[in-house]
Structures are given as structure tokens and as C-alpha cells.
Amino acid sequence: MNPSSPEVRFPLYARIAAILISMVILVYGLHTLQGLLIPLVFAILFAVLLLPLARRLESWGVPRILAVLLCLILTLTVISGILYAVSMQVSNFAEVVPQLIERGNKYLNQIQNYADEQFNIDRKRQITEVRKYVNQLLAEGGTILTTTLLATTSALTDVFLILLFIFFFLLYRDFFRSFFYKAFHTTRQSKIDSIMGEVSRVVKDYLAGLALVILVTGTLMTVGLLILGVDYAVFFGFFGASLV
């Protein structure tokens, strides 16, 4: 009879230290890989959303790679349509900027007159202070521009990675299914299929609920802005809802 090895029990402080170190390593790893993990998560969500369409196209006799490419083209078309609508609203808003500047100058003159009358701050001193703050803003403008360019480049890179991940997820979905079968070989394949189907349903319900929340919130915000008489209420309402 082989003697059984004694069970090793670490002290409480050692276990707590091991847990804390593991959490630090996990958080650091997630933070380091966030540039890859965030596009990966979005790609999984969109791949689950596009999977029924890809299956429908394949059932009509379309080759899988062509069906996946059509799904990606559809995704790009929808994104381009949204960006075009937003750009049109921004261009329309830019047309009224001179009117807003004129209105702002009128309010500024009123504020200057009020400060001169109530606080004895002459307009020359006010102009000096305003110029000082404007120079500070201009000095920070380069940093803001650099940050904006970096954010734009990062966003384009994320979009490219998302589309690339979606392509491979949809094209090699049978491979990923076989991987799960082998990774959980002790579990029945029917149960794995059931779990994967449940995950897919949860993702679809989440995306549908998110779209509904944006629609309802955007509608309510638009109505409120229209009541207040704000220009471009629809744009600002749904833009704010998408940020929320």
C-alpha cells in the first residue's frame, strides 16, 4: 500500500497574500491587454448578432466565406450610414455657428456692461483677462489636437480589429465549437450546445435591450429639448442617449 502524501496547508496570511497577488496580476494583465480585449469582446457580440444572417445566406447556397464577407459589408454599410447621418447633422450645426457666435458676443457685451456697472471692473481690464484665458486655451490646443488624432487613430485600429475578429469568428466557428468539445470532453456535447445557445440568446437580448434603451432615452431627451426650444434636438437627444 502506497503511503498517502500529507496534505499541505498554508497559513492564512500566505493564502491571503497569494489571492491578492493573483488579483494584482489579473488586473495588470487585463489593463495591459485592454487594447486587444475590448475589440475582441465587441467582435464576439457582433459575431453572435450576425451569425443567424450568415447561416441564412449559407442555407441559400452561398459559400461560407462569401456569406461572411456579405455580413461584414452589411456591418460597414450600417456604420457608414450612421456616420454619414451624424456628419450631416454636424455640418448643419456648423452652418449656424456664426449666428451662435454673434449671439454669444451680444451676451458677452451685456455681461461686460453689468460687471462695469455693478463691480466697477472696466472693459479694458475685462478684455485683458479674457485674452489671458484665450491664450491659455490656445496653448493647450496642441495637446487637445494631438489627443484627438491619437483617439481617432485608435478608434480606426479598433474598428479594423473588430472586423478582422468577426471575420475569423464566423468563418471558423466550427473550429471553435470543436475546441469547446475537446476542452470540456467530460461534458455531453448536447449540453455544451445548449449552453452556447443560451449565451447567444443572452447576448442578443442584451443588444436588443440596449438598442431599446437608447431609443426610449433618445426620444425622451429629444422631446425635452424640443420643449426647451433647443435647435437640433434630435441630434443632441440621441447623441446624449448613446453616451448614456
How would you describe this structure in keywords?
244 residues; mainly alpha; 2 domains; 8 helices; 87% helix
Give your account of this protein's structure:
The chain has 244 residues and is mainly α. The chain has 2 domains: 130 residues, no CATH class; 61 residues. Helices cover 87% and strands 0% of the residues. It has 8 helices and no strands. Helix 3 runs antiparallel to helix 5 and helix 7 runs antiparallel to helix 8. The longest helix has 49 residues. The radius of gyration is 28 Å and the shape is extended. The mean pLDDT is 79.
Work out the count of structural domains.
Answer: 2
Choose one word for the global shape. Answer: extended
**Number of helices, where a helix is a run of at least 4 consecutive DSSP H or I residues:** 8
Q: For the report, how would you describe the main beta sheet?
A: none
Low-confidence stretches: none
Based on DSSP secondary structure assignment, what is the total number of beta strands?
A: 0
Helix content: over 70%
> How confident overall, as mean pLDDT?
79
Q: What's the assembly state of these chains? A: single chain
The radius of gyration computed from the alpha-carbon positions, rounded to a whole number of angstroms, is 28 Å
Strand residue percentage: under 5%
User: What structural category characterises the helix and strand content?
Assistant: mainly alpha
Order of helices and strands: HHHHHHHH
How far do the termini sit from each other?
66 Å
